[in-house]
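hey m, so remember when u said the tokens were messed up on ur end? i reran from scratch. heres the input so u can diff it against urs
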Amino acid sequence: MLSELQKRKLTALFHHQDTNGDGFLEKADYERYMEKFAQVQNFAPDSPRYQAVYGQTMAAWEQTQKIADQDGDGRASLDEFLASWDITLGDEKLFEQLAIGYYRSLLDMWDRDGDGRLSGVEYIAFLGCYGVPEEAAREAFQHLDRKANGYLSAEELLQAAREFLGSDPDAPGNWIAGPY
């Protein structure tokens, strides 16, 4: 059973991912994210980098639909999304595949200079593609940057992903998707 804190964080995540604000996650939301991503990264749709990220993003959509779309209508409501996370958190293998896999791919997608970590600028741009205002994204980054060195290492990012889905109200990882 999800705690109230988990519900609050996952609800915020849902609304960030619901790029058109219609109350459902659907393929078009993931495609809109890709449009913003391509603009921010200045990737042409026919570039190999764009195609790789598009593939990762559509795989994320397919996983979301597979687990969360309980009524088979091709989209996921907030209730379905929360129920899917309740199931995911109870299955360590599924959790590793979905949540941790997503943040590993996040590092691949947004690490512009290939140094194996995300700068504040890179992370703020990532959250911006989900509509998180720059100031709120900056605050989120400050919470996640445990070493206060201006970067999120893969280790910090994965620790934050695990914390985000936990119930510790003081965990820095609660901020991984922005304010909640």
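this time it looks ok to me. The chain has a mean pLDDT of 91. if urs says something different then somethings off w ur setup not the seq
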